[in-house]
Amino acid sequence: MGTLTTLRTDIATPTDVLEGGRRMAPAIAARAAEIEAARRVPGDLLDELIAVGAFRVLRPRSHGGLEADLSDAMRVYEAFATADASVAWTVLIGSGTWCDLASLPRAAFDEVFSAPDAITAGVFSPSGSIAADDGGYRVSGRWSFASGCEHADWIYGNCIEGVVDGVPQMRMAVFSPDQVVIEDTWTVSGLCGTGSHHFHVDSALVPAERTLVPLVDPPCVDVPLVRIPIPSLIALVVASLAVGVARGALDDVVALAADKVPLLDHAVLAANPVFQLQLGEAEAELAAARALIHETAEAAWDAAASGGEFTLRDRARMRAAAVWATERAADVVRGAYRAGGGGSIYAASPLQRRLRDIDAVTQHFIVRRDTLTTAGAILAGQDVDVMVF
């Protein structure tokens, strides 16, 4: 369970968190190897992230949060990702997963977020079974990719309650850490420091009020963020993290190019016209990706704030923007890695870690490339058969 710190009164706006993250960035980057080796964010660094309000950036003001608009929150994730992708992912999960729980009954939501710095983690994939029992629900299951589960104050897992007319019926359950067994499975190639282990629950009894039907039950808090479709919301924040990783990779290779003399060359890499051309293209490509996701996020926020509905076409455009931006960010990182030459392959090079991290990000189902096929089908007026979009 995470250690809750005293709420800092000087962290009053999302900009305060952003500035705090930027101040922390050099120290975070310097500890990248330590974070990877630990396979989680070290405890003292986690305490610093809590202290700068990183986990409160998206939370409603009614529950101690800063209630940032989506674009401002994305800037925070991007800033942390420029320093280290695993730290940024940990912040993203810890600060954003409350949205999955927004449809809890209000009393249960109040309990879960009674501490302003409470951290949540969980898995949307319905990998458990759940059945009514003794006034609550009996739950068993095993879930993967539970980022941040080792320091979470509450952990949730989605379940299948039954099947109606061939359609699985989901119900999500929220567990206290003592009900959960975390399995040490997170030995991976990228995002190594996120502690995204498996966890399992064996016949745990969960009070009925700590369950919800995702994508069906209405939210118990009325803020713009919960009006944005969750898949679109997650896709945009993941894309912002990808953009931050790419920004960091460009910064790394520019610093390298100032001193590196490539084999059989007579000048530093920064003086090479081919490198200059590729750098100019990469900067423009990354700027375009960043502009697209922020324009998309701002439009979504305006629609949510005004109470507008999100059509399938709206969702298609949001998802397509996030996937395209993530792909462009990945291209930028790969280009920076190649430009770094043979030195990029060494464990001491940040470019190899950026490459592994961005490749891990692109493996996430929310930004996988074939999402563009579904988005395109919707925009072309075709019927699509997807359970969640």
Structural write-up:
The longest helix has 33 residues, at 273-305. With 389 residues, the chain is of the alpha+beta class. The protein has three domains: 14-101, Acyl-CoA dehydrogenase/oxidase, N-terminal domain (Butyryl-Coa Dehydrogenase, subunit A, domain 1, Orthogonal Bundle), CATH 1.10.540.10; 120-212, Beta Barrel (Butyryl-CoA Dehydrogenase, subunit A, domain 2); 228-379, Butyryl-CoA Dehydrogenase, subunit A, domain 3, CATH 1.20.140. It is globular. The protein has eleven helices and seven strands. A seven-stranded mixed beta sheet has the order 5-6-2-1-3-4-7.
Any chance you could write out the topology, listing elements then pairs?
Blueprint: H1 14-30, H2 32-38, H3 43-51, H4 70-83, H5 85-96, H6 106-112, E1 120-133, E2 136-146, E3 154-164, E4 167-175, E5 181-183, E6 197-207, E7 211-212, H7 230-257, H8 273-305, H9 312-339, H10 350-362, H11 371-379
Parallel strand pairs: 1-3
Antiparallel strand pairs: 1-2, 2-6, 3-4, 4-7, 5-6
Helix pairs in contact: 1-4, 4-5, 4-7, 5-7, 7-8, 7-9, 7-10, 8-9, 9-10, 9-11
